[in-house]
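hey can u run this one w/ S-adenosylmethionine bound, need the structure tokens asap thx
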Amino acid sequence: MTAIPPGVKACCAAAYSRDAVALVLGESYHPGGLALTRRLASAMRLRAGQHVVDVASGPGTTARLLATEYGTTVDGVELSEAAVQRAGAAAAEAGVSGRVRFYRGDAERLPLPDEIADAVVCECAFCTFPGKAAAAAEFARVLRPGGRLGITDVTVAGGGLPEELTTLTAWVACIAGARTAGEYARVLGAAGLRITHAEPHDDALARMVGQIDARVRLLQMTAAGRLAAAGIVADSVLRYTAMARRAVASGLIGYQLLVAEKPRHHDR
Ligand SMILES: C[S@@+](CC[C@H](N)C(=O)[O-])C[C@H]1O[C@@H](n2cnc3c(N)ncnc32)[C@H](O)[C@@H]1O
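ok here u go:
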């Protein structure tokens, strides 16, 4: 199993709250973007009036979408204070701050009461949590019986990753801490959550790597100053995207959508 570099949790949160990430990734920080969030919402059968917890809510794009398009209320929990502030400001600007709130908190100790949520979503973040069992137990704790969990995340093939993809950069890029889809199901199962649906979205990961590559190349030609100001070393990013592209193409890493259910008391 990949060793966890010290400080990986804070580093991931700090990295994702930098302007550089918005410059390279746009408004949604996961493969598949808003289209895959909509797919996840429909696989979870989200309905108007339901209460959703978005764990590792990042820029808050998913929370706003779930409130405006699905009529839900959303509590976003995010480790980075800067991201919490920005997500709150964006929700106010979109006129949904009455239905969408953001809290600073750790996925492994959610600052929310038991059984508060009809649904929990967690996109492209479970893979980065060093304490996956603790986070899974927290998902189960805040879900009401019968509630659903929806995850989209990076997966790795059974044989593990080559050394070049286990660095701190790889942790921040959500790769080094990723597990097989079976291992995710096992960890969620141990927390009392039963997988009801799974579908592969490896193509979304391939597209995201391609988009990052293309965006950095374009910025390198047209706005090198912006890249430098955001602290992005284009050649390093491009070396990394080339590695990631090969890993996706050879099936070493992929992307998976999972829906799980917290059984009602009489089903347990
Ligand atoms: C790849 S981004 C995904 C953000 C968002 N879910 C999205 O799809 O747009 C990963 C996010 O996880 C957050 N994060 C990492 N570890 C966390 C933890 N232990 N608790 C809460 N958030 C965490 C990071 O700060 C970052 O915003």
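The beta strands are 51-55, 73-78, 100-104, 117-123, 143-156, 194-200, 253-261. anyway lmk if its weird
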